[in-house]
Amino acid sequence: MWKPHEAVLGSDVVAREVVVALQGSEIATSRGFHLRHCPRSLFSKIGSHLTSFAKEGAMAANPLMECIEAALIVNQQLIKNKVGASSFQNIGRVTLPRAREGEGEGERGLLGHRNEPECPVHRSGLVFNTWWIGASGGGLHTRVQLCLGLVMKPCSILLPVSSKPLRSSIPFSHKTLLHTVAAAADLSPSHSPPAETSTPTVTGSISDLIALISSTHSIGGASKIHALLAKSRLSSSPPLCHHLLSLYSRCRSPESSRKLFEEFPDQDHVSWSALISAFANNGLGRDALKTFRKMRSLGVPSNEFTLPSVLKACSVSSDFVAGTQVHALIVVTGFESDVFVANTLVVMYSNFGRLSDSKRLFEGIAEPNSVSWNGLLAGFVRNDRFEEAISLFQKMALGASRPNEFGFSCLVNACTGSQDLSCGKAIHGYLTRLGYHSDPFIANALVDMYAKSGNFEAASFVFEKIAGPDIVSWNSFIAGCVLHGHDHQALALLVKMKASGMVPNVFTLSSIIKACAGAKMLDLGMQIHGSLITSGLDSDSFVSVGLVDMYAKCDRLDDATRAFYSIPERDLLAWNALISGCSHCGRDDEALSFFSDMRNGGLSLNRTTLSAVLKSTASAQAIGIAKQVHGLAMRTGFLSDPHVVNGLIDAYGKCNSVQEAGRIFEECQSADVVAFTSLITVHSQSGQGEEAFKVFTRMLSQELKPDSYVYSSLLNACASLSAYEQGKQIHVHVLKMGNMSDVFTGNALVNMYAKCGSIEDATLAFSEIPEKGVVSWSAMIGGLAQHGHGKQALALFSKMIDDGVSPNHITLTSVLSACNHAGLVEESKHYFDSMEEMFGVQRTQEHYACVIDLLGRAGKLDEAMELVHAMPFEANASVWGALLGAARVHGNIELGRQAAAVLFNLEPEKSGTHVLLANMYASAGMWDDVATARRLMKDSRVKKEPAVSWVELKGMIYTFIVGDRSHDRTAEIYAKLEELGDLMKKAGYIPKLEIDLHDVEPGEKEILLSHHSERLAVAFALISTPAGAPIRVKKNLRVCIDCHMAFKYICKIVSREIIIRDINRFHHFRDGACSCGDYW
């Protein structure tokens, strides 16, 4: 009896190929081939082809070879034509006809064995299916072992055969099997092994199969290869098993790796190592450690390949204790000297932030290679120790070692993190000389560095040089644009990216959503949101967090909240986005409430969480919550984090706890530039300008390099103090440090010069800002408004609109303020009525207060009251304060009383209301009411805020109060006042005695008026500065009417410009007149 040769059939497409192969018989008889249970349609096609071949008289030289090839062709073609599993149900049992006369029992088969059914199977190291081929009677017997991957259910039919076979041109080779497996794995032909000219050795076959497995990268391909090898009984071969396990790991299917491992008949140390590596590489550190413990308990030894994977698992699972235990095992087993293990130890310790330990281990490596250097270099970069990473590279460059592409990309990332663009450019030049600049990893790192540093010209240059920019290249460029607020450029890059055929991924879309938020392009963001929902990507964590952030920054917090609750698994990033969004929108109570919900849900926190919560705490001036967050930061170990420390300093400062803010700063182990900036800002915002400058001096003594935020805070401190000279000194610092191109510093300079009384210097600083944003324009317009240059402010506003810059609510407040200070009633009405329609800005309390104040000053009190009643919200203290001031100026007693009554409820602690009411009564000669007002103030225990004026001379601030005699030069000051008083009277000055409410004689009232704080400050400046120099004085309250009139006389007498900045505006006294036109 003949053993069957099993061949796979099941598709009409291969019928002709089957017949061609099976025709290869030199047997003279026509007993036929038996293929049972083949479909009728296939039977018909094969029969017709056999008939045609019989007529052609085709012959073949070797019938046995042709039968083997028949099975190979069928197997290959079925896979090639993608016949599904359901079609693999027809298997032919091919029986060769009788052998020719003379071919007897003693002949040898193809593989050189005796032609006996019992001869042993050829051993190859792989387990193949055995395919039996033979001849009936006393003819040829051969058992052939073939590497074919499918075994199906038997079925057959009977076919007639011609005695004239066709010679096949297909050589017998393992190539056919490999192409079969490659097709099953969906590999392109280039992934298949090269054609062979002769039958390969067994070793070559194993290598080719391993190479094929290594070239597969999809889980589908891995599963198909596994199935084919399993059915051909190859999956028990250790080399193939190990590579197949690793393949599942590369395809992110560690569970498949585990199941395959459990099927291993012999689980040796290589198998265990492969499984541990699969878990570690896929982020399953706990599973990897558990597997390692089981491996140890079974007595399986570890080697230099097992231990690095275990160390990686310790890093992945954040288990430092386990890492130290594995380190001890490495020392005991002597593997510490192995460079591969030592490199992994360096990386593990750096992952836990133990850079000193990591460096010691590195120094203990006898011959560190480039991987050793790269591991330590990456550790420093990962832990934000950028300067040390650059220093490490310099040491490395001096030695024999040189980084590879990964090391150089880490070095570029260090320059990015340290914001040291000059160093980055030097590294770029070095890479160009070495020829590394074209490497994709390094090119992407360079694009990222230049984009994040804001040098988009260089970023574009590097990007354009990349032969085929990948998704990382595009994402780096787009993310850099978004980081620096170039949102429209980021959107333009997205258009180019799609035009190039590159498909955006979730990281791209996350950046684009941020760009939509930054550009306030909510409609575009919502369109992207809709497309994400359609494509099913809206549930991706990165994209979802971006959506929450976008809606929050577009002041659509309700939509942000809905986007947040639509996230299936809300992790820390999602909570941070929502809390930060609430903080950004000024919804501080909600931010703190969400933080409480997050903590109640058992989630951990990070520095981003605490920073957002502290920002809301500072805005809400909630000192109690600030202390609670301080305690939480202490318990969770975040007091060493600079971001949290800076947030605490800011929160305590905003809560008027400057002393506590200073204590936090002093306890900071390593105060950096940001910490100094925070403390300088606290002192600046608290009116402690001198303390701010002391902190700045201390910062310079520690050789810390100030950045634009430091300069902005210092310039704001100068602005609050009207410290013109100190502001100029800071300006010189800015010039020396090359920060003039920074927009934040430029805006701060404009604000400082404007508030220090030099509108000319402010105009010059404004002209030097390279890219003027809405803040720049608003600062300059506001400066012109404060100085009474209303028409110039409106002209500048028109230029801003022409330049395509959209105003915000602050800009329009400055515009209305300019109209107010210049008395431009009609212009203010125009802008007020059209701001929502023309600019999309809703009216706020500040806008209403400006217009109501202007109408009141212009005597249009009825119109002002109509606007108050038309407000969509309750009028605040600034509105009623403007009405009270207007009532005092125009003598409308009834309106003044009404406004005062409301203010007593809104701001009972403010003394200004009582003073204005009393002055209104005094101006009308209602002395009984004056006494009543003063008595009410006394009964309410409200203390009048003392008037304070100050002047800056030679970097020092000198303050004065009314009747002040504490100054070293008091005698000279009062002598100067007396001299000026005599000259003023000769020039026609008559004091306004009625504004003084003291119950004293007129002569004493005149003396009291002449000793007001602003006059003392001016007198001191006159005796302390060169003749002709302008005098700049600031007062914390409104300048009084009598002093305002006196300064018009004094400026003319001394031939100097006197600049007084009061709480409302600047007064430039020159040539006997004031810039306000007596309208203030």
UniProtKB/TrEMBL annotation:
<dbReference type="InterPro" id="IPR002885">
    <property type="entry name" value="PPR_rpt"/>
</dbReference>
<keyword id="KW-0677">Repeat</keyword>
<dbReference type="InterPro" id="IPR046849">
    <property type="entry name" value="E2_motif"/>
</dbReference>
<dbReference type="InterPro" id="IPR046960">
    <property type="entry name" value="PPR_At4g14850-like_plant"/>
</dbReference>
<dbReference type="Pfam" id="PF13041">
    <property type="entry name" value="PPR_2"/>
</dbReference>
<feature type="repeat" description="PPR">
    <location>
        <begin position="369"/>
        <end position="403"/>
    </location>
</feature>
<dbReference type="GO" id="GO:0008270">
    <property type="term" value="F:zinc ion binding"/>
</dbReference>
<dbReference type="Pfam" id="PF20430">
    <property type="entry name" value="Eplus_motif"/>
</dbReference>
<dbReference type="Pfam" id="PF20431">
    <property type="entry name" value="E_motif"/>
</dbReference>
<feature type="repeat" description="PPR">
    <location>
        <begin position="672"/>
        <end position="706"/>
    </location>
</feature>
<feature type="repeat" description="PPR">
    <location>
        <begin position="268"/>
        <end position="302"/>
    </location>
</feature>
<dbReference type="GO" id="GO:0003723">
    <property type="term" value="F:RNA binding"/>
</dbReference>
<feature type="repeat" description="PPR">
    <location>
        <begin position="470"/>
        <end position="504"/>
    </location>
</feature>
<dbReference type="GO" id="GO:0009451">
    <property type="term" value="P:RNA modification"/>
</dbReference>
<feature type="repeat" description="PPR">
    <location>
        <begin position="773"/>
        <end position="807"/>
    </location>
</feature>
<dbReference type="Pfam" id="PF14432">
    <property type="entry name" value="DYW_deaminase"/>
</dbReference>
<feature type="domain" description="DYW">
    <location>
        <begin position="988"/>
        <end position="1080"/>
    </location>
</feature>
<dbReference type="InterPro" id="IPR046848">
    <property type="entry name" value="E_motif"/>
</dbReference>
<dbReference type="Pfam" id="PF01535">
    <property type="entry name" value="PPR"/>
</dbReference>
<protein>
    <recommendedName>
        <fullName>DYW domain-containing protein</fullName>
    </recommendedName>
</protein>
<feature type="repeat" description="PPR">
    <location>
        <begin position="571"/>
        <end position="605"/>
    </location>
</feature>
<dbReference type="InterPro" id="IPR032867">
    <property type="entry name" value="DYW_dom"/>
</dbReference>
<dbReference type="InterPro" id="IPR011990">
    <property type="entry name" value="TPR-like_helical_dom_sf"/>
</dbReference>
